[in-house]
Amino acid sequence: MTQEQRSFLEAKLLKDYQLELDDEGVSGERLAYRLGKIAEIGLTSEGGSYRIGFSKGERQAKELIKSWMRAAGLKVTEDGAGNVFGRLAGKQAHLPAILSGSHVDSVPNGGHFDGVLGVLTALEVVEAWKESNFQPKKPFEVVIFTDEEGSRFNGGLTGSEGMMGNIKLEERKQLKDQNGLSFQEVLEADGLNIDGYVQSPRPLNELEMFVEVHIEQGKQLEKAGLPCGIVTGIAGPCWLEIKFSGVAGHAGNTPMNDRQDALVAASQFVYEVSKLPKQVSETAVATVGKMFVHPNGANVIPGEVQLYVDIRDIFEETRNQLVDSVISCLNEIAAQSQVKVKVKELLRVRPVPIASEMQEKLSHSLQAHGIKEMRLPSGAGHDAMIVGEKLPVAMLFVRSKDGISHNPKEWTSLSDCVQAVHVLKHFVEQLQQK
């Protein structure tokens, strides 16, 4: 293939690729080609991806990868949630399967590596085994989960929740997308239906574990100069909606010592919240990222402020401790400022710490390929978080340039991607030995 015939992403990936990483049947050129072909589906004018869940773009990407799965000798199936499975039979077909993959949907105008890399690294492991005529003892499945990002219904993780039996059918039936289409209508437009969605859970005795490769979406690996690292746990978020109610008044005629300023109280709270996470855990975080001020006039003392706090940690005990600390801080400030506060909990998801056994196996795989070990938490949610509630999981992060994600500038070098394939391959081969 000439340079002119390559996709824009494929050409860029191959430009500085370390060819010596092509080993044991793994092909950087094949991986670059496939990343490039998926990037062309839903390509935006800004050079990003637009493949929201259950869209024609997500469907087109799935169908293309299905064709690659079949060519690699995998048996391809799709469940009622739209999850795609490419199964390589094991020598002992009765054993539970090892799953690896991610998703191919994107946020509007997102990047080209988030999710897609996890699917294609898993498929590349199969391709490498095919090159060397290797058949694993245990069945191995490459999985594409549907609608991980949640851009369609402001939710997400639809496919992995379906596979794991977290259906919440009545809640989903109430959902409508930005065009007013119901969840049922969106399913039907993608060739699916409610009855099939309800039947999407897999029997857990069919599955041994799930391993997900994903870009880091942060800067820790880049700062350390490492291509990939071991995820120690996936943070579970708790979202609080908080309303401060003071007294609105004229900015000129109300003395400073006679004010109940909701925004002053809220501002003090925002500042104090930023200092709380380090008091409970090295991995905890808390963020105020959304705020509304009423009446929002330049010459009016704010009478009401509504804001949202996102609190996360990879350990449930310390995450919950941080939630309690945030609420305690809120009540103290309210009392001092003589404003009223109301708190509504919108979400509380259980964190998923990753078992030390899985971390150690990934550590051995990094060492086997001369990669210095680094362990780091995932602050973002992933399909592995849902699967990890009921099955063992492992996660491998791959270096992100400048930590940018959900953006057309999202970038991970091909050399880093291929090193992740080697680590994943070694990890899955270790699992064949028990």
TrEMBL record:
The keyword Transferase does not apply. Pfam families: M20_dimer, Peptidase_M20. It is an enzyme of class 3 (hydrolase). Keywords: Hydrolase, Manganese, Metal-binding. Its cofactor is Mn(2+). The keyword Hydrolase applies. InterPro entries: Amidase_Cbmase, Bact_exopeptidase_dim_dom, Peptidase_M20, Peptidase_M20_dimer. CDD domains: M20_bAS. Residues 234-336 form the Peptidase M20 dimerisation domain. GO terms for molecular function: allantoate deiminase activity. Its EC number is 3.5.3.9. Homodimer. PANTHER family: ALLANTOATE DEIMINASE-RELATED (PTHR32494). Belongs to the peptidase M20 family. NCBIfam families: hydantase, PRK09290.1-5. This is Allantoate deiminase. It comes from Bacillus chungangensis. The lineage of its organism: Bacteria, Bacillati, Bacillota, Bacilli, Bacillales.
